## 1
Amino acid sequence: MLLTTDQLTYLRVDLQRLADIKYDPVLDELLDHYATLTEQHMDTGMSFEDASKWAWDDLGQGEGIQKIQDDYIANVQQQIRSRHVAIVKSYFRWPAFLTTALVGVLVYLVVPLIPTDYVIALLYLIVLTPTAILLWLERKLRKEPTSQQSLVFENAARHRNQHVNWVIIGSNFLISSIGDTSRQAFLQVHTTITVVVCMLLLLYAISFMQLLNERFNFRTKLA
Amino acid sequence: MILRLLEGRERMYGYEITQKVKELTAGEMTITEGALYPALHKLEAEGLLTTETQVVDGRARKYYSLTKTGQTEAAGRIAELTAFLDNLNLVLNLKPSL
């Protein structure tokens, strides 16, 4: 016996409300299973209400069903981490390494030319621009809160906070240098350190931008 | 078990797998949904399974099938398990005096 659209909606709501299933891929898969089990019970003469209760028990009830979603989230997050590492590694492989090296050389050459009064403002700009772009990308992804992409968004949001923390630590160092010319000029005198810090922060932010923007697809990227 | 089932078929969906296990073992063995889906997702993540979704009876149904890597891996794992069971059988069939 096939379920009606209303009955399918009823089962979908059950999964969403009683088991807190919110990610579309898990929801669709479990709905099909739940519906098939319900249909099997209805074929024995049960009413829809009774059949769906039996099917719910068969599925493992709320807690058992939630575990399936928890496992799915852990699985996807593991893949996101692997993909992120792969993206960062790709910046150090030919030919992407050429761009990375050129940006590094550019920073190395430009930093000593910046007037000391502007170096702090410029560093803020370099570091905060990727953060602003990340925020913009996250805003875009908020429109699809139940997709796999939302897991990437959550992951990126967590790391963006870390990125901002790095900015705060850097800011404290820079602010503490105000009034002391030798310390203020520290980042210009030791240009290599500046390049390393800037490049790390930029690569860190850009890798997340790439991850968010490439429409990360669960499993297929690793296959 | 999942790999073996899929080895002989073009594609299967979750509910179908649970029913096939029950049918093959005459109800002696069941695979719960809580064990089945995490296993399917893990195999999918490892690139051993591929999926396609099709709308059936008004709802989305996700079908799993073996990838090329999955086919090779399935054959390897089944051979390993068979060898293990053969050895286990040899040990279990030893006479107490030996």
## 2
Amino acid sequence: MAATDVFVAIVFYLVAATMILAGASMVLARNMVRSALWLVLTLAGVAVMYVLLSADFLAVAQILVYVGAIMILMLFAIMLTPNQVDLPSAAPQAQRISAALTALAVFGISVFVMLSHRWNVRAVPLDAPSSERLGVLLMSTYVLPFEIASLLLTAGMIGAIVIAREE
Amino acid sequence: MNVLASIPPPLGSVLILVLGTLVILLLTGRLSNSPTILATIGVLSLLGAALPAMGGDALTRVSVLGVVAAGLVGMLLVPSAELHNSTQRPEVAALILLGSTGAIVLATAGELLSAALGLETLSLSAAVLVALGRGARPLEAAFRYFVLAAISFAALVYGLGLLLLATGSFAWPRPGVVDPTYSYIWTIGVLLIGLGFAYKLAVFPLLWGPLDAYTAGAPGLAGFVMAASKIAAVVALARLAAGAAVPMAPILIGIGLVSIIWGTFGALAQREVRRMLAYSTVANAGLMALALGCGPEGRAAAIFFVVIYVLTILLAFAAMAGRGTGPLPFGEVRGEGLSATRALGLTLALLSLAGIPPTPGFWAKLAILDASWSALGFWPTLVAVIGGVAGVLYYLRPLPDLLALTRAHVSSAPAPAVWFAGAAVVVLGLAPGFAYAVARLAIGG
Amino acid sequence: MALAPIGLQHFLVLGTILFCIGMYGALSRSNAVGVLLSIELMLNAVNVIMVAFAKFIDTPQELAGQVFAIFIMTVAAAEAAVGLAIVISVYRLRHSIQVDDIDLLKN
């Protein structure tokens, strides 16, 4: 194994373990503020994974959009609902058990499919920074979805403003 | 000139709708005090959006015209919509235009990534439109609608990912292009995408959110949400089923039968017009899903049915608009003081929904039963027939009170939306063959 | 396993674990914001899987997985904004955002 492979492996396992622990703490935490902060940690881990996957643009966007914007929005929402922060935040036990069973079933099936399938793997994994090609693709092949996404954001923005505005 | 000619027809419609949205958003401050001008701008941009679609193929024409009709009724009802905050009418109009855009994109998009984004635009606009109704019930209905929409969209996204993996592109599924080793991944992907589309149709497992939204939203806005979603969902599901009949058709038939039974029993148990209409929509969605699983003939019948159903339901909601977001119990219909026009409109809509012969609803049900008979044989068709006949039992319950109201002399405020939707239903009742021919052309059969 | 270089399967398993954690949260949380947080985690897990595909799998359209991830991110942002606005308005009316309490349509 080359030195970079060892380095990548160390980073991957450290970050992946952190993400899984933080994700589990996120769904189990009683306090909503803590829950949101655990999710911030998980989403930052996703950004590191993007770096390992040579998706440089996505890594930066992940930090800006998720960690910087969406999570701030979530924290605002939690702060604006003051007496709801620290309630027993899980559903009754029967619902929790059925949720856990569903999640385990999905996990089992997906992992089985993913590990047993013979993927059509590339000879050389994508390696160079991909931002430039991504930008060209968004402005050529994917220009229509790109424009429709702008309509989606407009609808979301108008909607959020009109619903949350107090008279 | 050349540039204009080279824009594909659905895109032309989308551009005009976006232009209308921009005009309304830029003039929000002025328009919030003049609802008539606001509705005029909205109506003009919707009519304008119908024009480029005329140059397109039959599928484009059907989807754009259906969505435009839904948008027109919604827009005509904006000045009288029961909003929590009545200064927000311009935003409501803008969201109707954006929602129509999303529905058109979902129905006519050339690849699935755009279709998914169109669906989400429609979902978000719909949730917000429901939420803006007066009182606490619309808001809570919108919340449930939104959460289910988010979850089913996550399923759609997952399915789209699997499809990307199996075929390497976002194209609509086509038979015979998938590598055999990827075929089960492709199948699961197609089914998950179908699930995401089916949420907009409100069939059996995915109905709690839509049910609440149709029951509790402001009538005009709920009618728009329902109509636009159903047209787009049926066209999108028809395209999906055309390309991937193998996993889709049996599932659609099964879901359709369960929905017919569930929706019929649900509607029979109701004591209130709006909730009865909401439950019965599940039974009707079941009929459409059943037809979508019956080959090209069935898909044409489903498109024919959805066009007629949507116009009828728009008429019903337009007739109930302006009376608030609360329930309308069967016993209190007479005391409601609906004007003669509205009572007549609601009567016509209920007769057509029940499938009484000269009304268009009769022809629509007949087309579906015919397709189901030739594709599936006796038993499934029997379930559909019983579901259709049971409609008479629940749809016609408020009818005596409504007929009494048409003779009462309540001063009649102008109700353009009722006139528009009523005229459309009457025309379809007179010339069902024309609509059916267009639906068949749209399917390419 | 520990000595194999990090490849496609590692990212797939990680993404699946995160997706299922998020799914458990979305189904078991009773706080509405908690549900929205869990849905965000699910969408991110799908993104990790998609970007891993873009790196390792041979597809006709290069980088389609990354493009897909960008669009999911866009949708997630719009969804979060609208969802939280609805949650805050519900709170103003009912002083509760417990999912079980948001159920007055039943009567």
